[in-house]
Amino acid sequence: LAIQGGGAEKDVIERIRTGEIAVDLYRPADLQLWWLASDLGRSLFQLIGRGVIPFVFGALFFPMALPTDVTSWAALFVALLLAMLVSFGIRYLAALSVFWLMDGMGVMQAVMITGVFCSGMVFPLNAFPGVLGDIVRALPWAAQLQMPADVLMGKTDPLGAYAFQATWAVALL
Fold first, then answer.
1. What is d(CA 18, CA 12) in angstroms, rounded to the nearest whole number?
2. Sign (positive/negative) of CA torsion 138, 143, 144, 147?
3. Cβ pair 8, 88 in contact under 8 A
4. Contacts of 124 (CB under 8 A, 6+ apart)
5. Please, are residues 45 and 113 in contact by the beta-carbon 8 Å criterion?
6. Taking a C-beta distance cutoff of 8 angstroms, is the pair 95, 13 a contact?
7. 3-state secondary structure of 5
8. What is the 3-class SS of 90-119, one letter each residue?
9. Which of 167, 132, 131 is CA-nearest to residue 147?
10. pLDDT tens profile 140-172
């Protein structure tokens, strides 16, 4: 949930649409870093409020097969931070399309729907058959949810997952 929309992209879209982005571009701060810092704060807040708290509450009442070593949880934290960077990169680029389109609703809805299906949120990406599975696992959305889940469950090498996520973060940012 911390990696999905609802962050800076809505404000960026509105500021582009109204022309207020011109003021932002004159500020002595990097625009992308400004919005990234805002979005990371929102993501971490949502991770705690909408992720950790319900997870702990559920773990109290339902049995869960989770790793017991600290290194798996530390690896998950790094994977989640990289997932937040990738998520911001996707949404920020989509928001910037408003410079040409003048309306971001359609683009943001397409990004959200694609993210839901290609991140592993609906069902794991290894459930996609054949070549389609290879394609969705290579897309940046896989870095958002599937990679952190695989890292936590020990189904992938954390360093390989970090490399995949970092490559997409750099490419998108």
1. 10
2. positive
3. yes
4. 146, 149
5. no
6. yes
7. coil
8. HHHHHHHCHHHHCCCHHHHHHHHHHHHHHC
9. 167
10. 999 999 999 999 988 999 999 999 999 999 999
CA 24 to chain centre: 24
Q: Which of 73, 92, 89 is nearest to 16 (CA)?
A: 92
- Beta strand ranges found along the chain (DSSP E): none
Give the whole-angstrom CA distance, residue 65 versus residue 69: 12
Contact 136, 142 (CB under 8 A): yes
Residue 31 class from Cβ within 10 Å (0-12 exposed, 13-18 middle, 19+ buried)? middle
Q: Using one digit for the tens of pLDDT, what is the confidence trace for 44-103?
A: 998 898 888 998 999 899 998 888 889 999 999 999 999 999 999 999 999 999 999 888
Confirm whether pTM is higher than 0.90.
no
